[in-house]
Amino acid sequence: MSTDLQQVKAWILKRHPERDDIDPDLDLIENRLIDSLSFVEFVFLLEQVSGNPIDMDTLEVDDLRSLSSIEARFFAAAVTG
After folding, report:
1. Which distant-in-sequence residues (6+ apart) come within 8 Å of 76 by Cβ?
2. pTM of this prediction?
3. Residue ranges per domain, the chain?
4. 3-80, what's its fold?
5. Measured CA distances, 53 to 1, 28, 45, 49, 77 (Å)
């Protein structure tokens, strides 16, 4: 898991102290780890950590479903390059 993704995971865990870990394939939305109240803040965090702006018009919810999908969509270049 990349350092960037670790920051994202830490952000989620900070808001859910009842959890001590998040499986990379756990559905974050279905399990209410990211909800409508935190969604915009979460997208802003992804922009900050990835260093890239996120176009809300083209953002797919599936890109945010799990830590694995977030890593593939927003941090794949950092892992491979």
Report:
1. none
2. 0.88
3. 3-80
4. 1.10.1200
5. 22, 21, 10, 10, 15
Helices (H), 1-81: 3-15, 39-50, 67-74, 76-80
Residue 80: pLDDT band (50, 70, 90) is: very low
pLDDT tens for 24-61 read 999 999 999 999 999 999 999 999 999 999 999 999 99
* Structural contact between residues 48 and 16, judged by C-beta atoms closer than 8 angstroms: no
First to last CA, the chain: 14
**Largest pairwise CA distance in the chain:** 35
